[in-house]
Specification:
328 residues; 6-stranded mixed sheet; 10 strands
Length: 328
């Protein structure tokens, strides 16, 4: 896969916003999974960082495998990072999203792991999105998208569970329990923080339900098939230019099919993302005389993000969807 990185300034902004260290900069611990008396928690990429940060709070020493500015699917783990993983008190990750992380965890065998995929269900949205309207050979294109992500042999699994607040809340509860198990001395704090975060995610879910009422269309076009869980949750129809891999090029049949869908379903906006090129989305929008806007899959936070954290960016996504779908 191609490596996609933000500008250095973006990486600095992201690191400052998260208040995180990278794993290679992590302080040396005594081999007990703690640094300066705090539980060493390693998160694989931003959505896992957010959960660990909000639930762990001041009781944990949080580090990240994925530096701000590195597209998470393209991450490669160094031997030093693999060695450091073995010393972590808890690793929070999403199995199948980052093959190099899966391999490093299998090799390092950390004391405790919290796999987000084990706390909720993963479904196949890529194939459904590409073949939804039966346009030509789009199903084959979706297969290419799956291969690009290499979901550890489960090519059909859509990993973007964090874009559904309900599923993300389920993961938050799982991470909270994993923290309690890894660090019983702070169990009460973790329980309190988990409850507060789940309440916030439930409110976000309700705001999506309310905000998308009275819409004039259910269909939205976006760069890649990241929003299957969100679409399913709120009764929307995602039409992706690419499959699950945002770097894959759409086939001529797919582009032709999107032209038909846009006219039939009265689509007025083509969405692009902050971490990948917007060239294809803008070309499609220009051909159809449609507007463009950002719908962020929140795989990382940077200077172009419309918010400082997951909650803020999700609310920006809601505003963008309301405009695009004609919600009152």
């Amino acid at each position: 896969m191609n490596i996609r990185r933000l500008r250095p300034t973006t990486a600095l902004v992201g690191a400052a916003a998260l208040g995180l260290t990278t794993l290679t900069a992590c302080s040396t611990n005594a081999g007990d999974g703690r640094t300066d008396g705090k539980l060493d928690v390693v998160a694989s990429f931003y959505p896992m960082q957010f959960l660990a940060q909000r639930i762990g709070g001041s009781a944990v020493h949080l580090s990240s495998l994925t530096k701000p500015g590195v597209e998470p699917h393209d991450l490669e783990i160094s031997p030093r990072q693999t060695a450091d993983l073995s010393e972590a008190g808890l690793v929070v990750y999403l199995k199948g999203l980052q093959p190099s992380v899966d391999r490093a965890i299998a090799q390092a065998q950390p004391k405790q792991v919290a796999d987000a995929a084990s706390y909720t269900s993963l479904e196949d949205h890529g194939t459904e999105v590409e073949g939804e309207h039966g346009h030509g050979d789009e199903g084959e294109e979706g297969h290419d998208g799956h291969e690009g992500h290499d979901h550890s042999g489960d090519a059909a699994a859509d990993p973007h569970i964090w874009l559904d607040p309900v599923r993300y809340a389920q993961v938050a509860k799982g991470v909270g329990k994993a923290l309690e198990k890894a660090d019983p001395d702070h169990a009460a704090a973790y329980k309190k923080n988990t409850t507060a975060l789940v309440k916030e995610l439930n409110t976000l879910d309700q705001d999506f339900r309310t905000g998308l009422k009275g819409r004039s269309s259910d269909t939205f076009i976006t760069t890649h098939a990241a929003f299957g869980y969100l679409a399913e949750r709120y009764g929307l129809r995602q039409e992706a230019i690419s499959g699950l891999d945002p770097e894959s090029e759409p086939s001529p049949a797919r582009v032709k099919g999107l032209h038909t869908i846009a006219k039939k379903d009265k689509v007025n906006t083509v969405f692009f993302e902050t971490l990948v090129s917007d060239r294809t989305a803008r070309t499609l929008a220009g051909d159809l005389h449609l507007r463009t806007d950002v719908l962020d899959p929140i795989e990382g936070i940077g200077s172009k993000s419309k918010g400082d954290d997951y909650i803020q960016v999700m609310r920006a996504n809601l505003k963008a969807l309301k405009r695009a779908l004609g919600a009152k």
